[in-house]
Amino acid sequence: MTEPVRLTDIAELAKVSEATVSRVVNGKAGVAAATRQAVLAAMDQLGYDRPARSRQRNAGLIGLIIPELNNPIFPAFAQVIDRTLTLRGFTSVLCTQSPGAATEDELIEALTERGVDGIVFVSGLHADQTASRDRYTRLITRGLPVVFVNGYAPDVKAPFFSDDDAAAVQLAIAHLRELGHERIGLAVGPSRFVPSRRKAEEFRRLMAPVAGEAEVERLLVNSLYSVEGGHSAASFLLDEGCTAMVCGSDLMALGAIRGARKRGLSVPRDFSVIGYDDSPLIAFTDPPLTTIQQQVSSIAAAAVRALLDEIAGLPVPSTEYLFQPELIVRGSTAACPSS
């Protein structure tokens, strides 16, 4: 028969005192939010049934609208946002927007009907330059706090939190140039999306002096943010004589590696590939993927803090906050084969 979980077991796993665990179990005050969350996480891991008195009073509901979950970067954002909200006593209501499913407008309507206190938009229609901004203006006019992650719309008076796409391209190109590559391609998503446009603009600026202004357009591919999109882009860029390529997502990079291998090429010996995101588990691919890491935790935490400040009635500047990415060098890049 399995022995019952003891407070000592919870305290050991959470790295706190048994007295602290007792305070959490009995719903007593005087425990820091992060410590309380660590104790609750330990309870869940050990299968300890939380007593009703340990439950924190719900401060409110926050809507979270993200794209489909098959790209691992979006669940990563959702996890950090949900955890940060939980620490502040709020509950997130997760909505995913995928092709053929509910539209962003329908999700907004469902969330407002539930009486959410605010909404976090991650890579939504605010990143699409062809989409109407009226949906966001209506929410702001009604006084509903909103924040946006990745994608900037200057005419929407709200805070935006984005990875610095130009800096990401700078890091990638500098790394490949140091390895001797000159014929470098870029594969990003559709040009109507702000992150794709920003990456493409910086790529043109950096590569025009190397390849020429006319030729650089042949090294730039707009495709889909998917394995298939990366495969297709790699095939095109290999035909253009590229020895390396930078991708707009890790999924695209995996597709690029697959495309190179279908031609009998070895990555990175014959062809170097850089991804973007540093999605969970991407370090365990074959080869381990060199990528540009989004600062997911910092971006998500800052967005939640701004939203909760808005809810509390504190002033939050309506501007864009850019976060610096980081180059993570692994095994998918190497010296140019001709150098």
Automatic annotation (TrEMBL):
Keyword Transmembrane helix: no
PROSITE patterns according to UniProt: HTH_LACI_1, HTH_LACI_2
The UniProt record lists the keyword Magnesium: no
Keywords: DNA-binding, Transcription, Transcription regulation
GO molecular function: DNA-binding transcription factor activity; transcription cis-regulatory region binding
Domain HTH lacI-type positions: 5-59
Pfam family, one: LacI
Protein name: LacI family DNA-binding transcriptional regulator
Species annotation: Amycolatopsis rhizosphaerae
